[in-house]
Automatic annotation (TrEMBL):
Site (Important for catalytic activity, responsible for pKa modulation of the active site Glu and correct orientation of both the proton donor and substrate): 127
SUPFAM superfamilies, per database record: Arabinanase/levansucrase/invertase
Pathway(s) it belongs to: Glycan metabolism; L-arabinan degradation
Alphabetical list of Gene3D superfamilies matching this protein: Glycosyl hydrolase domain, family 43
Organism: Paenibacillus selenitireducens
Record GO biological process: carbohydrate metabolic process
Family that this chain belongs to: Belongs to the glycosyl hydrolase 43 family.
InterPro entries: GH43_arabinanases, Glyco_hydro_43, Glyco_hydro_beta-prop_sf
Listed name of the protein: Glycoside hydrolase
Record keywords, A-Z: Glycosidase, Hydrolase
Amino acid sequence: MKRLSDINLRDPYILPVSRENTYYLYGTDGATAWHGKPAGFDVYKSCDLLNWEGPYPAFRPGPTFWGTHHYWAPEVHFYQGKFYMFASFKAEGIARATHILVADHPLGPFQTHGDSPITPRHWECLDGTLYIEKDGTPWMVFCREWLQVTDGEMYAVQLAPNLYDTVGEPILLFKASSAPWSKPGEGGEQVTDGPYLHRMGNGQLVMLWSSGGYQGYATGLARSVSGKIIGPWKQDETPIFHEDGGHGMLFQDWYGNLLLTLHAPNNNPKERPIILRVEERSGTLEMKEVSSAF
């Protein structure tokens, strides 16, 4: 058994599966996040969010799989009876892209869903996440990297019902510079990372996303004025987490508590998944006292 403090993961994603009384934890392996060829993606499991079993091999690429390094930010969604992993990959001479994988169980084994990535071929992209609109239409929100556009961009693209293809062109939602809390780097670059969509109790659609902040890596909220994925999107003035941690997502435990997981610090190889208790209050997300158990 391991505690979260023993697990060197970036970009954590926790999938609760109530019928198994099990939480599944995915993420970017810290040891190979920037250098080397990863074996694939692993998964950990827990019944209490305190003690974690694993790692178990969730995805191992076949000999013809195109991605060779930078296996980043896997997240798993249950959709139409199967588990779909959205993850980013890179290869020499090939733009970073999000590829969709599929399995019958959260432990995998995950296989490629479609022959090619789902993001635009010549764009440097990452961190695709699935969002199902109120009318049942699947969308993917993803980032276009600052490496290519300087001012990082956030896009949404409609997906076919079977998730094999996109429908129409990507829609620009906002740029990193639209958030007052996003700090430009020395070359003027601004990052868009880790989008995650959440419908608040008051019906408002918000997006968690991360960027460089004035006290380190940070996570803030954008709000859809229309309540739909296409926006327009308005940025909060201050981040909800500013202490050098980010790429977060929200989930509920078995008792209905709303929890936020993200990695902190944003310093390889010291990054670890952490879990924070949050509350929806006055239209925003407020951190409650952090449990030492996590």
